[in-house]
Amino acid sequence: MDWHPENHTMSVPISFAADLWIRRAFGVAGYAFLVWDYILTFADEVQYIWMAPWTLSKALFLVNRYGNLATQTFFRIEETGLLSHGSQKWCHGFNVYATIYLFVATESIHILVLLRAWAIWGCTPRVAAWLISIYAIYSLLVLAMTVYGTSRSTFQTFQYLEDIGVCVAYMPPYLWILFFPNFALDTSAFAIIMRSLQKHSRACRRLYPSQLLHRLFKDAITFFLVNTFNNVFVILVMWTLYATSPKNMIALSFSTPLLSVAGQRLVLNLRGLRTQTYSRGQLSREVDRQIMAIQEGDANHWLAPTVPWRDDDGDDAAEERGAEPMENGIPLAVR
User: Fold this and answer.
1) Which residues of 174-210 are buried (b: 16+ CB within 10 A; e: fewer)?
2) Are residues 212 and 284 in the same domain?
3) Residue 92 sits in which domain range?
């Protein structure tokens, strides 16, 4: 049955109808924000993503970006009440799909951030092993909670489906447990990034462009704040306080687009930053110059780099001879 306002006044509690309206309003707001940011950044995407070679970061970015747009469009259509036709079986399939979507949308961003943290630290095996261990524990706990939730009978029970035509399920209990591994994973990545950037800033303040370091600091702090808000708002509020309310879907329709946009901006902001680069030959000359300066005891000369910098799209003789460029001493995997 299609959803009509008069049905709510006849057979659906007013409080439930009000919560459903709030869910729809948040869903429209999240969708509008997602589409608006897509329009704003489409030109950057074409220039910095599509024109770039295929990497894991590029694949994760595109999966997250277009998976979110397609799925959020599908969610908005579902909330009109035109798809379910009162079918519990259809809503069960919708619930399974929504669960898979939530995992892919959040974990693609998590992996991007972990790759960024590992690259900024210097791509060391020790940090990689640490991050992989934390992420493995986190993933196993998420998988266990997902299997537990989908196996419960409430996962297949939908409230007032014949009256409203919208799939409103109960959230399984104990989801608040997920807050702790989420927070531990995000905090670990954030701590690694900030510690590494502080080391770069102190040791190489004159060698690394301040614009790059400022962008890395700003993006790391912004994403951590958005992610923390998402964890608190979704897990502790929407999935715990409103486990039986239509508002539990706000986690998918509002918070997930915010988190995805923040993660996508990490990639676009860094790739769009015009930095200076130097070739191996230039780096070698700079190292020789600094060693000579140290031997002569000329600290001021050692601190002032004389590498012949060039822009990303500039010409350089070493580059033309096939030398592999490096960017600002920070591994290319950051990008």
Assistant:
1) ebeebbebbeebbebbbebbbebbeebeeeeeeebee
2) no
3) 5-273
Beta-carbon contacts of residue 255 (< 8 Å; ≥ 6 apart):
30, 230, 233, 234, 238
d(CA 137, CA 299): 48
The last residue of one of the domains, among 273, 305, 324, is: 273
For residue 265, give the nearest of 257, 274, 254 by alpha carbon. Answer: 257
In a shared domain, residues 267 and 305: no
Question: Which residues, in sequence order, are bridge partners of residue 169?
Answer: 158
Query: Does one domain contain both 248 and 289?
Result: no
- The verdict on 9 and 106 lying in the same domain is yes
Residue indicated by tokens 């196996």: 151
Euclidean distance between CA atoms 98 and 121, whole angstroms: 35
Instruction: Please check whether residues 298 and 160 belong to one and the same domain.
Output: no
Identity at 273, one-letter amino acid code: L
- pTM of this structure: 0.74
| Tokens standing for residue 309 | 């910098």
Q: Walk along the chain (335 residues) and give the pLDDT tens digit of each residue.
A: 444 444 444 588 899 999 999 999 999 999 999 999 999 999 999 999 998 888 888 999 999 999 999 999 999 999 988 888 888 889 988 988 988 898 888 888 888 888 888 887 777 788 788 888 888 888 888 888 777 777 776 666 788 888 888 998 888 777 777 778 888 888 888 888 888 887 766 655 555 556 777 778 888 898 999 988 888 888 877 778 888 888 888 888 898 899 999 999 988 888 877 555 555 565 565 555 555 554 554 444 444 444 433 444 443 433 333 443 444 444 444 45
